[in-house]
């Protein structure tokens, strides 16, 4: 089964590479958005389902054409953004910091908004793995993208706390890139060399509901409440498309308000848009978790930024979170 998962991941990688062909610059009134998997993208699911970008564009006298694509892993998303294949990238704060650093003084990619605050869980079906110190060469940990995904960065942060900064990447050799849905299915069914998964909701909740799966690490214990997944764009897109960009920000804010006040409807939206195999009742239990907050304001991202600079993962040191997030007419309130 694990070979089949590897083949699927490779196939998705090839599909993602097809998006990397140079694309013509987009004119005002067009926006292309790349998202990934999980409830952390619920803001975008609501925006898409209710046509909120189009709604706010029309309020400003602009008809906006919106294109959506789904990728797996921060590397594929970053490549798509830099190639001009997408305008808005949805990925972890780790990939944001990587692309912000690499484009500093050039394309100047920065964060647009958070997608909310959620604990991410590292889980395993290996009863011998109680903490990250118990992983051995016999274990394989699924992440969306090796080394650069936010899950990989969280694992590195935890390793640095366990063994010191010099060994921050000690567990990277045990990680493999597998999309969340496939990693979750493999972990629950068992019988493959993949026996751990640094996941996100709802996959992590489905996994720990299995009697053979347990939590190894909770990122809220590691970093406190934080925004693991964010949206980002190039400075050029933001400057060249002010009405489109503004409509997108307003759409996100409206979606966040909708989710906070209409969780049953938000759960139904997620299931309908993503075709997820989860019941509305189970999804509502997840959305009602007080640790989950759907907000466009980034929280708790700077600790990871400081860490990545300290270990040399990024070369430019941000003075604060505001260095890697745009500030707009609706200013973000972050940390």
TrEMBL record:
Gene3D superfamilies: Periplasmic binding protein-like II
Keywords: Signal
UniProt keyword Amino-acid biosynthesis present: no
PANTHER family assigned to the protein according to its UniProt record, in alphabetical order: ABC TRANSPORTER SUBSTRATE-BINDING PROTEIN, ALIPHATIC SULFONATES-BINDING PROTEIN-RELATED
Signal sequence range: 1-27
Parts of the chain that traverse the membrane: none
Protein name, as recorded: ABC transporter substrate-binding protein
